[in-house]
Design brief:
The chain has helices at 3-12, 40-49, 54-59, 107-123, and strands at 18-23, 29-33, 61-63, 66-73, 77-82, 85-91, 95-101. The chain is of the alpha+beta class. The chain has a single domain, classed as Beta-Lactamase (2-Layer Sandwich), CATH 3.30.450.30. The protein has a seven-stranded antiparallel sheet, with helices on both faces. The two termini are 13 Å apart. This is Profilin.
Length: 126
């Protein structure tokens, strides 16, 4: 399966409207669906935030030029919200999943889908 299929499968759930897959360090885009528009500076900042979340705790999450309020940040997952939409970032052994859910989607439903894909990638050493 190509990397693009993973992001396309997230979109196909109907719970995610934008998705990207990067290298764990955030220095290489592997796949993207629906034009997230994440800059290299934004993803590098997010990749570093898993180990040191102080910047996003103070300034929020910036992805695609949009600011999201930080809800959770730990060594595996970062969640953010802006009004009724949100973002989910999950780090695996080699990859960084980034997903956006639109207004009208329950955050927990979107989060579960992205976290399950991360669990799968970890199980196959990615």
């Amino acid at each position: 399966m190509s990397w693009q299929a993973y992001t396309d499968n997230l979109i196909a759930t109907g719970k995610i409207d934008k998705a990207s897959l990067f290298s764990r360090a955030g220095d290489s885009l592997w796949a993207e669906s629906n034009g997230f528009g994440i800059s290299s500076q934004e993803i590098s900042s997010m990749a570093a935030s898993f180990d040191n979340p102080s910047n996003i705790q103070q300034h929020g999450i910036i992805l695609g030029g949009k600011k999201y309020m930080l809800l959770r940040a730990d060594e595996r997952s970062i969640y953010g919200r802006s009004d009724a939409e949100g973002v989910i970032l999950v780090r695996t052994k080699q990859a960084l999943l980034v997903a956006h859910y639109p207004a009208g989607i329950v955050a927990g439903d979107a989060t579960k889908i992205v976290e399950q894909l991360a669990d799968y990638l970890i199980s196959v050493q990615y």
